[in-house]
Design brief:
This protein is of the alpha/beta class. Helix content is 43%, strand content 12%.
């Protein structure tokens, strides 16, 4: 392949897919022969009008190629890009249906199309096209095809199935409110307006998240689901354990892709359950936990899209110090002497009398 590009007589751009495992950093498939050929070809093509483009996911080039090959990361589409794609693809489907003498009706207002685009946030444009194409085939009847507001919950189900393969689940908001924790509830209600479009247009700072600590069975999960109800935001549950892979760098790449998906869906709630099991370095000799921790800390510090992180843990002493420092989470439940009865009921929604007005830092 490289010989063909080198001997090609004209000018052109050559697009190569899935080559990065052979030239990737710490990859088990790293080939020094291919790595050397890429470097030699780079210098040979530099004075010519021939260029090579590598395509792939989670590309981490070898150190010897970092300064030679520039990297460009394509983010997930925004809501405006999705709206434009929906308009063009629905028009394409309508023209295809007319060629086959099939009635194609789109019964969506401008507001409905915006709602549909917002429901599709987190999907790629190709995945959105696949969803529309499958929906059209399923709705084909003798009377034609009708695209209306009933496709909105369908795209949410389609997105849920795809995100589940990445270790992200679209959770449901709680139907049972929690008792006690009055200060936490007031704190959330006062800051719920910071996630509105008006607050984002004014560049007002948004809260980063909250850490819920307590023994198992004290209602941390029900509080996390209620936070999504109070803030009126979609709930994403991140299962880090399902993202751990056997290949070097695979786990960190899966976590980064999941965090970028949450950023594309924002504003939303990102719920990381039992976070100490994923971030604790006890027994981890490969350093995967530390690298995942670094990815999460960087995301929490630099993300400005409106992702509210809700982390729950059973043993806060097992968490790294840098994850618990002041300012990392905007609100954090007291964790000193957490086995004491006073702190045990802090996140126990079934014991509201003794949990009344317990301080929330």
């Amino acid at each position: 392949m490289f010989e063909y590009i080198n001997n090609f007589g004209g000018n052109g751009v050559f697009i190569l897919g899935d080559v990065h495992p052979f030239v990737g950093k710490n990859s088990l498939q790293l080939s020094w022969e291919i790595l050397t050929r890429v470097k030699n070809l780079y210098h040979r093509l530099k004075p010519t009008e021939k260029r090579i483009v590598f395509l792939g996911q989670n590309i981490q080039l070898h150190e010897s190629l970092l300064r030679l090959i520039p990297c460009c990361e394509v983010p997930l589409p925004s809501i405006e890009q999705i709206q434009d794609h929906l308009e063009s693809y629905l028009l394409y489907l309508q023209e295809s249906a007319s060629e086959q003498e099939v009635t194609f009706t789109v019964s969506l207002t401008i507001e409905d199309k915006e709602t549909l685009a917002r429901a599709a946030l987190g999907l790629t444009l190709e995945e959105i096209s696949d969803f529309l194409r499958l929906t059209v085939k399923e709705r084909l009847t003798s009377k034609g095809i009708v695209i209306d507001t009933t496709v909105i919950p369908l795209v949410v189900e389609y997105k849920t199935r795809l995100l589940a393969q990445m270790g992200i689940e679209l959770g449901k908001s709680a139907t049972i409110p929690f008792g006690g924790l009055d200060l936490l509830r007031d704190w959330l209600q006062r800051r719920s307006r910071l996630f509105s479009q008006e607050a984002r247009s004014l560049n007002l700072p948004q809260p980063k998240g909250v850490l819920l600590a307590g023994p198992p069975g004290t209602g941390k999960s029900i509080v996390a689901k209620n936070i999504a109800t109070i803030l009126n935001l979609p709930l994403l549950q991140l299962d880090i354990a399902s993202m751990l892979g056997s290949l070097v760098g695979e786990s960190e790449g899966n976590v980064r892709r999941a965090l970028k998906t949450a950023e594309a869906i924002a504003p939303c709630i990102l719920w990381i359950d039992e976070v100490e099991k994923a971030l604790s370095a006890n027994g981890d000799t490969s350093g995967v936990s530390q690298r995942i921790l670094g990815n999460i800390l960087t995301f929490m510090s630099e993300c400005t899209a409106g992702v509210f992180v809700v982390a729950t843990c059973n043993d806060p002493t097992a968490l790294p110090i840098e994850f618990k420092r002041k300012g990392r989470n905007t609100a954090r439940l007291r964790e000193n002497r957490w086995w004491n009865k006073e702190y045990f009921v802090l996140v126990n929604y079934t014991r509201t009398k003794t949990a009344k007005n317990v301080a929330c830092t």
